[in-house]
UniProtKB/TrEMBL annotation:
Protein name per UniProt: Tc1-like transposase DDE domain-containing protein
GO molecular function, one term: nucleic acid binding
Matching InterPro entries: RNaseH_sf (IPR036397)
Species of origin: Mycena citricolor
């Protein structure tokens, strides 16, 4: 409710000038979801009704991108080691996303907008985004933040983009 109260006076132009960003995992071999197989009782081991299972670990890629009202940023494959102790750290996020892509995306979106309006940046509340060093980095580069809605991990407008991307890659 406080998020809605704080943002209720934003104009349509102000909403159009918010750069929404997010990271996403994409599974490249197999699926991350359930596979449904339709068969008769007699087809239990029929090759046409089986889905191969691989012994190797699933290949996951972490990507980042950003969007605004009628603008899209690059799709970036991140160098992400994953696994135990290999999470997206604040330092990795600053180096691979903020320094390399966000500053340029902010400039590109500014040129794209017809009006002179301040571009703002929104990221979710993942640890690498809320770390003190990340907040200081954003302040040093004078990148204004739009707070993410509290307790709302999957309500960002970029989430449907990830869904479509995964659907096409896993097809």
């Amino acid at each position: 409710m406080s998020w809605a109260q704080a943002n209720r006076r934003k104009t349509a132009w102000e909403w159009d000038a918010i750069l929404l960003s997010d990271e996403c995992y994409i599974h490249l071999n197999g699926t991350a979801g359930h596979v449904w197989v339709t068969r008769t009782v007699n087809e239990v081991y029929n090759e046409a009704c089986l889905v191969p299972a691989f012994k190797q670990l699933p290949v996951r890629v972490m990507v980042w991108s950003c969007i605004a009202h009628d603008w899209k940023g690059p799709l970036v494959i991140l160098n992400y080691p994953g696994g135990k102790g290999g999470g997206m750290s604040a330092e990795r996020y600053q180096k691979q996303v903020l320094r390399t892509h966000v500053v340029k995306a902010m400039k590109d979106l500014c040129h794209h907008c017809a009006r002179k309006i301040k571009i703002q940046y929104q990221q979710d509340s993942a640890f690498c985004h809320t770390a003190e060093s990340t907040i200081k980095w954003l302040e040093n580069y004078k990148i204004p933040l739009v707070p993410h809605r509290a307790c709302s991990p999957n309500v960002s407008p970029i989430e449907p983009v990830w869904h479509e991307l995964k659907k096409h890659i896993c097809a």
